[in-house]
């Protein structure tokens, strides 16, 4: 493409200027929010608000650290759920993708469609029956329960990405392993998994970001305050009124802490994220 | 979709037929063993809840008393429920408002940034970053930005002299709330369409656009006659994905307006949630979920057919 458009000098500056303006507009809310989390207590409650902090302090983070159950508890809930969801998703979809890509199973196409079923049914619609079932199984107010829900949401996409990737592994590699006497499990372990690392990373990354951010399912399943994930505790801190109303500074601190892992993971693994998105949206 | 047909099982052609058949049967069992956990999981946590939702939708159930069969009563009640229609209409209105902005805006951003210069790459990364942030969290900080007395939006508009007293953005007037929420969601998800459009634009063979250029087509003509037609399928696909997402919107409304004023900004999913959980009208909530799911299904099937074709 780059050779096709020989931009004239003026057009090039115009494009650059527009890019800079767009970047500023897009980054402004984020930067303002992060900066607001660093305002001292009094300033963060000021009305009208200050644009930039007049002084820096970690007061807001300190208040968040001890808010109700304390930040570490909520972080542990969010992180625990996300890691469990990643583990369950991979434990289910890696073998399943292997089976779908390499084994002669009767009715395989039908099974694949059944497995992708959740793509057609929005999980938001299934929350009522899932809640009833989990209540019976003791999976409400449980990280495992929420991780199972997140796995159910993420499974079709993961399976789809992994199956395509397993399909693309050259049969020669596998044949060589089998000739050397490898069992099917050894072939999976030593041939397929090493050659599908990018897809596995993509799946883990998407599961992490979905689980870390997911709101409605957590709202339905977690009714006990001590089991709240980060988004839930922040949403409840928004409405809770202390003496001076909403504690904006603490809210900003929580928002910053929720955003940082997602953005970091995305920037580090951007390649996997974008390729996953391409194959996922065209599911 | 790429081929789902199995590759040939890995039998050496030199082996006697009997052994190949035996191995094949064995590998069927082995294959099924690899598949079974995922299959059981989907049956337990997607298929079974779906079946139960259908069953519950024909009953009245509040968890306190046992379920009572009521036939289609929940569905007829939905048709007569004014609030259900208010929510449904509001959701459609929100979808109608945001979709063109996301698609046209996303496409323009893709045209701007599709070439791989460092600045454009950087711009792409910046525009895409909000996509990875949670909708709940982004709604929370927009809730702060739009807050009447503590928000920077009012502060900035006052300083610029565009307004002379603080605007009550959220939860007071349905249309103003909708505008504020739409702004926040556009910020959050516009990069999603953009990145897919960039992918589609970059996939156009260079000689096609070069040929158009040699023929003297202006940039605008090339976009209208070459680039847009060749990426039309992606545009349709992203439109569908985005429409489905908007029809299922809930987090942003739950957080930014809590459905206020008078549940005028309660979206369909929000209304389902209200009935099922705080009100514990499980049967009615299930019936509403069913109506919503069927409505969404139509869009999803079109989307799947479209993407199946795009892989063919």
List keywords for this structure.
heterodimer; A: 283 residues; mainly alpha; B: 312 residues; flat
Describe it:
Chain A has helices spanning 9-36, 41-44, 59-65, 71-102, 108-115, 123-137, 143-167, 171-179, 184-195, 197-213, 216-221, 230-239, 248-268, 270-281. With 283 residues, chain A is mostly helical. With 312 residues, chain B is mainly α. Chain B has 13 helices and two strands. Chain B has helices at residues 17-57, 73-80, 82-113, 118-132, 135-145, 152-159, 174-202, 206-214, 219-230, 232-247, 251-256, 268-276, 282-311; strands at residues 59-60, 68-69. Chain B has a two-stranded antiparallel ribbon. In chain B, β1 and β2 (68-69) form a beta hairpin. Chain B is flat and about 75 Å long. The chains are: A mainly alpha (283), B mainly alpha (312). Chains A and B meet through α1, α4, α5, α6 and α7 of A and α1, α3, α4, α5 and α6 of B.
Largest binding interface between chains: A-B, 111 and 113 residues
Q: Could you tell me the number of beta strands of chain A?
A: 0
Structural class of chain A: mainly alpha
Say what oligomer this is. heterodimer
- The SSE order of chain B reads HEEHHHHHHHHHHHH
Gross morphology of chain A is globular
Low-confidence stretches of chain B: 1-15
Instruction: State mean pLDDT of chain B (0 to 100 scale).
Output: 86
The rounded Rg of chain B comes to 26 Å
Class from helix and strand fractions of chain B: mainly alpha
Low-confidence stretches of chain A: 1-5
Largest sheet strand order of chain B: 1-2
Shape summary of chain B: flat
* Largest beta-sheet details of chain B: 2 strands, antiparallel
**What is the share of helical residues of chain A?**
over 70%
Strand content of chain B: under 5%
